[in-house]
């Protein structure tokens, strides 16, 4: 039997009967497309590979009870939810927070014509910034909104670089709490998941 000639529905039925060759064919047929999608959204080869492996492992482990009408739709939907879960789980990690700020900025640039979203996000950011101490707020604005480096801020304010880094860490930690809802929403929009 040539598995490459079988359609997805037949392969899924064979997988439900423990046919490893049918599973291998589905894997070969869809792995690279699912991987490309996840890698593009997460910008990480390692995380993408892990998520795609999880998706296919789940298919194999649930093979006896899965009812899949469309294999590609099922796999791409599974990928979407795995990406969302991954982003939510990692939202508190600094590298993801930095990426989230970039995604928000990118999202604002792409949707500048949508004044309501822009105004809501701007108001949320301003409200969150208002909760910071004055010096921390000033340093955050200089670094994140005016794109000044730690070195430039240090020279401008005549403050040691370590102090600047401390203020940035504190501001990001506090803003993360205040903007959590907007960041999650913006990640989803920027990633093009909905």
Task: Describe what this molecule looks like in 3D.
This protein is mainly α and 194 residues long. It is built from nine helices and no strands. The C terminus is likely disordered.
Features of this protein?
single chain; mainly alpha; 78% helix; 0% strand; disordered C terminus
The helix/strand class is mainly alpha
Terminal residue distance: 40 Å
Give the uncertain stretches in residue-range form. Answer: 107-115, 190-194
Helix content: over 70%
Main sheet characteristics: none
The total strand number stands at 0
The residue-averaged pLDDT reads 80
Proportion of beta-strand residues: under 5%
What's the gyration radius in Å? 22 Å
Shape: elongated
Compressed to H and E, one letter per element, the order equals HHHHHHHHH
How many DSSP H or I helices?
Answer: 9
């Amino acid at each position: 039997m040539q598995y490459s000639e079988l359609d997805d529905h037949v392969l899924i039925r064979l997988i439900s009967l423990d046919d490893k060759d049918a599973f291998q064919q589905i894997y070969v047929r869809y792995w690279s497309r699912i991987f490309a999608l996840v890698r593009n959204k997460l910008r990480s080869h390692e995380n993408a590979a892990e998520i795609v492996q999880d998706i296919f492992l789940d298919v194999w482990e649930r093979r006896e009870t899965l009812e899949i009408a469309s294999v590609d739709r099922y796999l791409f939907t599974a990928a979407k939810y795995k990406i969302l879960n991954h982003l939510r789980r990692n939202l508190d990690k600094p590298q993801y927070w930095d990426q989230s700020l970039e995604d928000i900025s990118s999202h604002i640039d792409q949707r500048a014509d949508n004044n309501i979203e822009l105004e809501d996000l701007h108001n949320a950011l301003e409200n969150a910034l208002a909760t910071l101490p004055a010096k921390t707020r000033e340093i955050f604005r200089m670094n994140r909104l005016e794109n000044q480096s730690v070195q430039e801020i240090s020279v401008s304010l005549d403050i040691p670089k370590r102090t600047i880094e401390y203020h940035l860490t504190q501001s990001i930690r506090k803003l993360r709490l205040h903007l959590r809802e907007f960041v999650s929403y913006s990640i989803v929009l920027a990633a093009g998941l909905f």
